[in-house]
Structure to design on (1402 residues):
């Protein structure tokens, strides 16, 4: 063979072998059956080594099912290494071929598969790959087949003469009765019988030897396809029984394939058909066009002749062949032979007729239902021995009276059909049915291939049709072939054959009904025919021949005509029932129904019109899911699920079951928004309760479908979780776990994992207990096994559920389940190759905290914020949850009840009584739930942090380094929770591990995060470290940044104050170090006095006596003037910015107030208001402004132009506005409170007379944390007094002797701007003076402000100077101060100044 020929042949071999392995890999059922057959063929000595093979099978199955390429590759490499080291067997070679094929190594796969033909050729060609044997080997063995055919004819020559002589003895008058006559085969001479048996054995042996030789040859061709050396095929082996000679045969000899009966390049005399050859090419997916009349659309109908045509049989598809093979081998370890498989695939002849112009043409059916798929021995219409087409008796089984399909010859010499004799033996008989001799063994021998070839030869020589027994169709002659369908009904036994006669009569009636259905133009007759066929179907056992007759396309088209034309509900239900039964048994029915779109649309229309049985047929038709949604079948599906199946007729599938299947397919196949709307319909219509009922369904697949639907409903609408948990029976779901696919297993795990996210901790633990204890197997052990092979993305969910189940026991006890679950979570969290699994692992740890909302969302973050003092978000979330869980309480009360006043009063009283009662009950219930939640949280945190001495902290620290915001957020919450719990659970010495892994991440978040919640959570973690000396030492190294953040958070979180208190010691052993560093001093004397200063973000605005507004930016030493505006004509007495920061308001002595937009870099005036009076001390609240006019009182001006004067008896000096209350400081030293909403006036401090003719006005007012601070002259030694804003009594004072002109207050300090150019700094809480700041001038400090962060103080003086100072707060423990070198000099100077000798002792 040349190089080109060798390459072409190599390509052909690879093509066939690759097609075979691909088909095996795509069909799990066939694959598992082959594995079972291979296990059965292992020798007893090989059983000890079966474990590695089973492990390789399991690894291969996991690789096939996994969607992840890397996981598949690693699994295949593992299985390959295992098999390569294993001794070479048929089983191992076959597994290697599949593994190589899945690994995209076609050459290695082909070599391993050919090795199977070399090791066990009989099994390979008859059971494993008969199709591949025919495609690659059989063509080369034609001379062998011819030689054995000649030998067979020589042996049978004398038998044929005897058969003709005794022809009268071979016929039978009644095929339904067993005639126990002797067969000619049993009358053979001993030499003839032995000769045939020996010929058969020799034939099998020769095939095996040639198979081995050509397998080696094919392997050599593949291995040397690219080399130039010539490769010759091996010589054929002919081992003759009589002489034992070996005859060499070369392919150069001329064999006339036509004489051998070769069609399509193949020949096999064992399974030869009369007129057709069946092609078993697994690689060919095309089918020959159908020769029977098809239902087509109206626009493509063509006129046809009304003649009855004889058509050749259509080829049976590969999928049908495989299906038959699966059916034949379902209940045995080893497969049936290739002869049986090929013999079960026959062509079918269907007749074509013309179309009727009025309606769709009824099509006649030429099928004799009384005959089996084989020829009977004789027909009733033929006299004994007269018909040449009557088969010899030896070709007919004495039990079934049918031609042999799989003959087996017992040790008594009698031959029977395999299925019939097997049933005879299964009934407990141990004797031969004819001879009554006892059988030494009930194990049936191999197929009698010699007899089978004789039958095949007889069929070749007698191609004529057998006359029909029906008188109605007796004149019609047709080349009739019926499809061979493997019957699911047990074969006829000697005890059941007698009933055949009565069946014949019923079958004739059925045949007449079918004729009426297909031929009658009268609708009523067709409807009666349908009802008659339905009764027949329900009353009789359906044989394969009857099933084939009813499955013909003309019959199916007749049923469809009924669906289009009938209006009788009973007839329509019967038609749907029959189509469902036929479609569930024969795939060709489904092909016929789906060939025309209008047929499917009609079935869907009937379903939508209320014929709920049609849903079963819709499911069997497998229509486009998108098309079903577009045809609006979702609501009818939900209606069927909501209904009761008791009202439906008994079908192959319950309508509710089919509806559940379709609903699952719709949810899986459609876009997210479509699926979301469907789930909303399921929940709102309360169909979910009926779907929960499907969890107890008889079929495991229905339970799996229900689990999938419920899991998606729970994920989208968590409120239905309580409904599912209350009504679901989990035992059937748990039983499903071991008997389903990996995909459905994960659905079950995911469903249970989501189900225990209830907002009731006690109920969650009850469900977990049921999950752990119910079921026929150990749920925890099953989950552990599944965890070992689950895909990476599924592992966190499985591990989370397993860990919760394990935690039901004492958490301090060791458990393999717990160790594996936590190890899995940690490994997933650290594996950056699977980001989805990382996020799922982090979110699983967060959810293990055990608190959830009513919608199933974890409450870990809100609950931690509540513990940190930010209760606002938590309370808001709880209010929303209450609204969701307690919608309108009056929903169930009729509107008519409210028409009467008496009824309204009674309902109101009842409503409030029920509310009070439920509140009392809820308080006790919530208390118990909180106890259970706290106990669960402590147990879960303990087992997580105790695992491998805090290994979870390392994994969380790696997650905090991720750039994924989702992963970082989940890890941050999980880390905060576990670190916080270190202060709650017993100390096991792992706080140090947490500190080393996480503290720097918390400090970094606290310093840099702009989210106040993240900073607060970091602060919560500090609380766990601050009690640890080493943790405190680490915190002090970042003290500057921490204290800065603490001051910012003190306004919103009480925890910040507590942390500051913990970081600083008590008053007797601590020192407060405040440092005010001057950054810059600006001179604006050319604009006059600085009368007002306000701040906004990083900008300052100053108002001057010449009417100028200046904008300053760049806080720090780089402060510079951005903009200078002069639109007021006189002095600007006040500037005011509302809290939202959108507008700046300026009041001036020019009797106007202007509104400025300050959102951009440059400000501009947007409104000018004429105030009709000079404006002093302007304050703004929403739609009104308040200012001090030139005369007495306070003027309230609305922006629409209206105004009024309040407190007209007083001359007001200063104003302060807080929550709708206006505080007035007056010239007579009195303080009043004005309620702007009601106009009421309250006095806080009474006025005093002028002393020595000099007034003592209130120069400044500030309201802070419910206290009123007033500043005046120190006549009584107290310039600043502090008042309660609720009780109006004085609660404190600042004993300063300076005359205070302005004041501003921060979270910690009070700044007093005084006459003489100084600023006094006082401690807010201690009310002690800390420091005196100099402005560098002797003028008055007229105004002050702080930036939003309270780090920069800006003052304005009467001399036109603006000074900016940086405020820094340092609070250290003394022992820490010694260790911090960077602050040593500052501390020493400060303490020498303040404490003198105390420092020396220190």
């Amino acid at each position: 063979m040349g190089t080109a020929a060798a390459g072409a042949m190599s390509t052909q071999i690879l093509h066939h072998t690759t097609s075979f392995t691909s088909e095996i890999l795509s069909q799990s059922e066939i694959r598992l059956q082959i594995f079972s057959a291979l296990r059965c063929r292992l020798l007893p000595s090989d059983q000890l080594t079966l474990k590695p093979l089973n492990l390789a099978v399991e690894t291969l199955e996991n690789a096939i099912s996994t969607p992840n390429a890397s996981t598949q590759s690693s699994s295949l490499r593992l299985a390959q290494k295992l098999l390569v080291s294993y001794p070479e067997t048929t089983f191992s070679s076959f597994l290697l071929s599949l593994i190589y094929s899945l690994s995209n190594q076609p050459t290695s796969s082909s070599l391993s598969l050919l090795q199977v033909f070399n090791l066990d050729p009989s099994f390979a060609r008859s059971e494993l790959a008969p199709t591949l044997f025919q495609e690659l080997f059989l063509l080369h063995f034609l001379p062998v087949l011819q030689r054995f055919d000649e030998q067979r004819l020589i042996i049978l020559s004398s038998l044929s003469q005897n058969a003709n002589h005794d022809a009268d003895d071979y016929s039978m008058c009644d095929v339904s009765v067993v005639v126990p006559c002797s067969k000619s085969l049993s009358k053979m001479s001993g030499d003839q019988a032995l000769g045939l048996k020996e010929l058969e054995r020799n034939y099998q042996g020769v095939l095996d030897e040639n198979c081995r030789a050509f397998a080696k040859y094919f392997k050599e061709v593949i291995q040397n396809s690219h080399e130039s050396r010539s490769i010759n095929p091996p010589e054929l082996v002919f081992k003759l029984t009589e002489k034992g000679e070996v005859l060499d045969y070369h392919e150069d000899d001329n064999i006339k394939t036509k004489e051998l009966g070769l069609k399509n390049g193949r020949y096999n005399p064992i399974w030869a058909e009369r007129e057709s050859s069946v092609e078993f090419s697994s690689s060919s997916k095309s089918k020959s066009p159908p020769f029977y009349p098809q239902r087509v659309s109206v626009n493509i109908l063509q006129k046809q002749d009304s003649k009855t045509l004889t058509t050749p049989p259509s080829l049976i598809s590969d999928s049908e062949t495989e299906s038959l093979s699966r059916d034949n081998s379902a209940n045995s370890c080893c497969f049936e032979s290739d002869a049986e498989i090929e013999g079960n695939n026959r062509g079918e002849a269907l007749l074509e007729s013309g179309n009727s112009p009025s309606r769709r043409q009824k099509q006649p059916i030429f099928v004799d239902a009384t005959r089996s798929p084989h020829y009977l021995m004789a027909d009733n219409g033929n006299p004994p021995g007269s018909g040449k087409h009557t088969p010899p008796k030896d070709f007919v089984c004495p039990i079934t009276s049918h031609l042999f399909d799989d003959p087996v010859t017992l040790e008594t010499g009698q031959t029977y059909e395999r299925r019939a004799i097997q049933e005879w033996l299964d009934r407990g008989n141990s004797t031969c049915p004819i001879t009554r001799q006892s059988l030494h063994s009930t194990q049936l021998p191999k197929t009698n291939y010699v007899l089978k070839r004789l039958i095949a030869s007889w069929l070749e020589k007698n191609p004529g049709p057998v006359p029909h027994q029906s008188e109605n169709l007796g004149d019609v002659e047709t080349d009739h072939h019926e499809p061979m369908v493997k019957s699911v009904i047990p074969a006829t036994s000697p005890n059941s054959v007698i009933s055949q006669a009565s069946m014949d009569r019923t079958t004739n009636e059925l045949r007449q009904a079918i004729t009426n259905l297909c031929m009658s133009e009268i609708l009523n007759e067709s409807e009666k025919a349908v009802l008659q066929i339905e009764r027949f179907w329900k009353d009789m056992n359906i044989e394969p021949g009857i099933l084939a007759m009813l499955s013909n396309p003309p019959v199916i088209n007749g049923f469809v005509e009924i669906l289009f034309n009938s209006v009788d509900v009973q007839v329509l239900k019967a038609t749907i029932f029959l189509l469902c039964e036929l479609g569930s048994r024969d795939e060709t029915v489904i092909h016929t129904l789906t060939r025309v779109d209008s047929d499917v649309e009609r079935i869907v229309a009937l379903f939508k019109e209320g014929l709920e049985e049609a849903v079963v047929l819709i499911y069997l038709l497998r229509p486009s899911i998108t098309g079903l949604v577009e045809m609006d079948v979702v609501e009818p599906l939900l209606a069927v699920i909501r209904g009761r199946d008791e009202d439906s007729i008994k079908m192959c599938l319950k309508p509710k079951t089919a509806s559940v299947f379709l609903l699952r397919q719709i949810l899986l196949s459609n876009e997210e928004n479509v699926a979301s709307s469907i789930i909303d319909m399921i929940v709102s219509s309360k169909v979910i309760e009926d779907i929960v009922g499907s969890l107890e369904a008889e079929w495991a697949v229905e339970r799996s479908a229900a689990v999938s639907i419920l899991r998606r409903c729970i994920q989208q609408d968590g409120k239905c979780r309580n409904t599912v948990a209350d009504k679901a029976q989990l035992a059937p779901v748990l039983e499903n776990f071991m008997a389903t696919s990996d995909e459905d297993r994960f659905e079950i795990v995911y469903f249970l994992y989501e189900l225990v996210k209830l907002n009731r901790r006690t109920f969650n633990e009850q469900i977990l207990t049921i999950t752990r204890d119910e079921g026929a197997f150990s749920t925890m052990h099953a989950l552990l096994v599944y965890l070992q092979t689950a895909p990476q993305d599924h592992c966190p969910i499985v591990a989370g559920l397993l860990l919760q189940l394990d935690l039901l026991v004492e958490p301090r006890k060791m458990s393999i389940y717990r160790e594996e679950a936590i190890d899995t979570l940690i490994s997933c969290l650290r594996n950056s190759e699977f980001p989805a699994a990382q996020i799922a692992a982090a979110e699983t740890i967060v959810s293990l905290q055990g608190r959830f909302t009513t919608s199933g969302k974890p409450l870990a973050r809100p609950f931690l914020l509540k513990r940190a003092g930010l209760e606002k978000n938590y309370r808001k979330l709880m209010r929303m949850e209450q609204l969701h869980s307690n919608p309108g309480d009056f929903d169930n009360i009729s509107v008519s009840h409210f028409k009467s006043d008496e009824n309204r009063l009674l309902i109101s009283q009842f409503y409030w009584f029920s509310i009070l009662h439920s509140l009392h009950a809820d308080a006790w219930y919530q208390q118990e739930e909180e106890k259970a939640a706290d106990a669960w949280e402590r147990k879960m945190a303990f087992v997580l942090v105790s695992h491998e001495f805090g290994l979870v902290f390392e994994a969380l620290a790696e997650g905090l380094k991720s750039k994924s915001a989702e992963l970082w957020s989940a890890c941050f919450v999980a880390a905060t929770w576990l670190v916080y719990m270190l202060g709650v659970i017993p100390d096991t010495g792992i706080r140090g591990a947490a500190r080393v892994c996480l503290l720097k991440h918390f400090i970094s978040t606290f310093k840099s995060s702009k989210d106040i919640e993240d900073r607060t959570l970091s602060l919560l973690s500090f609380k766990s470290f601050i009690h640890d000396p080493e943790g405190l030492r680490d915190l002090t190294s970042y003290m500057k940044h921490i204290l800065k953040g603490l001051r910012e958070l003190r306004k919103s979180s009480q925890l910040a104050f507590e942390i500051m208190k913990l970081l600083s010691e008590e008053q007797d052993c601590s020192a407060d170090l405040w440092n005010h560093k001057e950054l810059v001093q600006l001179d604006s004397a050319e604009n006059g006095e600085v009368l007002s200063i306000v701040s906004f973000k990083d900008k300052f605005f100053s108002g001057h006596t010449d009417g100028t507004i200046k904008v300053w930016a760049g806080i720090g030493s780089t402060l510079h003037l951005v903009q200078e505006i002069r639109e007021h004509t006189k002095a600007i007495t006040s500037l005011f910015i509302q809290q939202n920061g959108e507008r700046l308001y300026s009041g001036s002595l020019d009797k106007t107030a202007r509104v400025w937009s300050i959102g951009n870099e440059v400000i501009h005036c947007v409104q000018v208001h004429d105030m009709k009076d000079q404006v002093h001390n302007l304050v703004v609240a929403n739609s009104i402004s308040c200012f001090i006019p030139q005369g007495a009182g306070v003027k309230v001006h609305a922006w629409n132009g209206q105004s009024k004067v309040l407190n007209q008896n007083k001359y007001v000096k200063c104003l302060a506005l807080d929550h709708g209350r206006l505080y007035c400081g007056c010239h007579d030293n009195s303080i009043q409170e004005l309620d702007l909403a009601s106009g009421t006036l309250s006095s806080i401090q009474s006025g005093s007379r002028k002393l020595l003719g000099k007034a003592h006005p209130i120069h400044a007012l500030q309201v802070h944390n419910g206290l009123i601070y007033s500043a005046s002259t120190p006549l009584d030694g107290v310039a600043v007094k502090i008042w309660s804003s609720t009780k109006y009594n004085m609660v404190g004072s600042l004993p300063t002797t300076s005359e205070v002109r302005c004041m501003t207050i921060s979270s910690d300090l009070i700044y007093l701007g005084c006459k003489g150019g100084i600023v006094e700094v006082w401690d807010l809480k201690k009310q002690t003076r800390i420091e005196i700041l100099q402005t560098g001038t002797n003028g008055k400090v007229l105004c002050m402000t702080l930036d939003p962060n309270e780090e920069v103080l800006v003052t304005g003086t009467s001399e036109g100077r603006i000074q900016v100072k940086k405020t820094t707060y340092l609070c250290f423990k003394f022992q820490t101060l010694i260790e911090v070198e960077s602050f040593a000099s500052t501390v020493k100077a400060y303490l020498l100044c303040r404490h003198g000798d105390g420092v020396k002792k220190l």
